[in-house]
Amino acid sequence: MLQFKGLTKLADFRPKRRAAVFAAIEPGKASAVVVSHLPNLRYLCGFTGSNGVLLITGRGATFYTDPRYDIQAAQECDCAVKVVTGPVWTAVARDVRRKRLTSLALESEHLSHAQWTGLAREFGKAVKLVEAKGVVEDLRAVKSPDEIARIRQAVLLGSAAYESVLEAVREGMTEQRIAAEIDHAMRLLGAEGPAFETIVAAGKRSALPHARPTAAKIRKNQLLLVDMGACLNGYMSDMTRVAHIGRPGGQARKIYDAVLEAQLAGIAAVKPGARCMDVDASARRSLKRRGLDRFFTHSLGHGLGLEIHETPRLGGKVESVLKPGMVVTIEPGVYLPEFGGVRIEDTVLVTETGVEVLTPTSKDFAVIA
Amino acid sequence: MLQFKGLTKLADFRPKRRAAVFAAIEPGKASAVVVSHLPNLRYLCGFTGSNGVLLITGRGATFYTDPRYDIQAAQECDCAVKVVTGPVWTAVARDVRRKRLTSLALESEHLSHAQWTGLAREFGKAVKLVEAKGVVEDLRAVKSPDEIARIRQAVLLGSAAYESVLEAVREGMTEQRIAAEIDHAMRLLGAEGPAFETIVAAGKRSALPHARPTAAKIRKNQLLLVDMGACLNGYMSDMTRVAHIGRPGGQARKIYDAVLEAQLAGIAAVKPGARCMDVDASARRSLKRRGLDRFFTHSLGHGLGLEIHETPRLGGKVESVLKPGMVVTIEPGVYLPEFGGVRIEDTVLVTETGVEVLTPTSKDFAVIA
Description:
The first copy, chain A, has 2 domains: 10-140, Creatine Amidinohydrolase, Chain A, domain 1, CATH 3.40.350; 145-368, Creatine Amidinohydrolase, CATH 3.90.230.10.
């Protein structure tokens, strides 16, 4: 199960990615790009440790890290590696001066202001620091075939864990216990861990979109919402399903059917060239026909990959368009504070011609006996 | 087991903490302090969600968050709460202008440079932004009685989980499986989760201080290093133990005994007024007597509490002194690349007169049959 064979190595894509990052800065604006955000490092040079800096110039890339990662960096990185004692940034600064680089594009959304001012002080007037925002993130939005294969694996693993635990869920179990069993099942199937804190919320608590599992026992006639994902080989999955303890009444079924209809409408709107805001609107329009759109209080979805929330966001004001190779969630919800909430979420792939739903788990309204 | 009764509420300490943070900025340097780092928010106003800003002036404190946390913020915070739609920082900026504050001390280590420049643009010349570094962190280094009680609980829970899993460990289990079982045991005992990614490293891999658990099966005649902690009610614990699969040979026993001796020397040096560097030196001196100090390649320990790494660091160049109420780890290690590594780590409390070891787990060299 969950085998994974015959794929091009991720490393094959990395030199192109680094070249694309360098090309993305305006000519003349900076003579090098410096990357330190960990998911971006993994994407650009393969490093999976916790400390490093990548310097990309027009002539190539060098990765700097500390002696803890000596062996690991040599194994993982497909570019030049320098292992340095003392602060990594100091070594980078030394090389920047030696190479006579006069301007650097830095990830201003990921460096703290204290780090930035420290670097500005270190370089003085010799090197200009330029704010680069979202350069690597924009590139990461379109996944390579190998990344898609890895996300597919994470999705399958997450679904397998959910389905195995759901079979064992019984009235009287606590939300916390169910969450713990899901996380454990993912680990036993080979995941590094959950992609985010697993949400298990029963009854009225299912109306809180960011509920944390509590010690409350699940009881008859409650909705049971589970929002979960796996992290496998660095890539994330994300799925939400809602079950019912005992046979659902009319209200629960009505909401469930409306959310499912909206989710299918959202999925149907996914295709290359579609604007994110229009995909969001498709699901919202569907709920409006049932008079439930005002209870859908968040965006329709988000990209995912090496992080659980990536570009693009499928929100009401996002004008950017979907491209083949993007992987996003479609997750409308309806939340009635005194009753409970339903959210249904799949991870989907934008294909050359439309959409492929990666999540295999049934969307029938599951009943827990 | 693990009961927790009759304690003063953590909230009782918070108004004093907020006053101390305001008092810590130099008079005249800033007219308000703005806090947004999540552990600092939890410490100062009780909020445990994922988005908010706390504005502290000489006249009191206001906490700003978004509508997702409407109910939660009202329940958790012991200061004024404003729930705002749209970006939280925009609402804070509006109030700063309305209150005619002319300078703000901001957490420059926790705000990204992009956030900082965005705020600077928003305020223009009307409001001066001042870099505040480590103000709340320094305060957090000395724990209140209630925080100590919570850390004590996290420590007991971590030890209980470790001991229950160690009993079940057998030759042939994978590092990943053992890590998964430890994490699961902590969750079943009530933890929110592991305090950090649990380290399980066997054989030569135990010589990597930051090893990640692999699919390698543990075998006879290997060292088995486990470095783990629990997060319970927001507070962390941290412990390392090393066992041996089968009866240890002379080399393994020699290293184990040397590290244990060094760890006890480190603990014996902990007392109010001791400099961090001197505590570190005590353990290092002990290893030197065995000719093993050059294999001890990291600092002796670190503070912990709401985060796993806090002030103070017990490192060779840290001149600050220990104070009653500080909670730190003592964790010397010896790493022989071709053989394996031993690290022994307890969480300890600096008392009025010396030290109390909180970790109850035996430090005898455990043998797995």
